[in-house]
Specification:
Length: 72
């Protein structure tokens, strides 16, 4: 059994086995960026779909965002 605080302290890697747990996107960004600071930018809508891409999964998001680090 592994405690949550132990996983968090070990950056979501199980100490005994070395298994890497999944982490949330926001937690990953917080770990990678300086001080965990970032801004989200909305992606502009596309007037048409030149590749005629169709989502195959029912739970795919309809809107997306770009995460960029804050300028210092």
């Amino acid at each position: 059994m592994v405690f949550y605080r132990d996983l968090e302290a070990n950056q979501w890697v199980v100490p005994n086995s070395g298994f890497h747990m999944k982490i949330k996107a926001r937690d990953r960004m917080k770990a990678f960026l300086d001080k965990g600071e970032y801004t989200e930018h909305e992606v502009p809508d596309v007037a048409h779909d030149p590749l005629k891409f169709r989502a195959t999964k029912k739970n795919m998001p309809t809107s997306c965002a770009i995460i960029a680090p804050k300028q210092t």
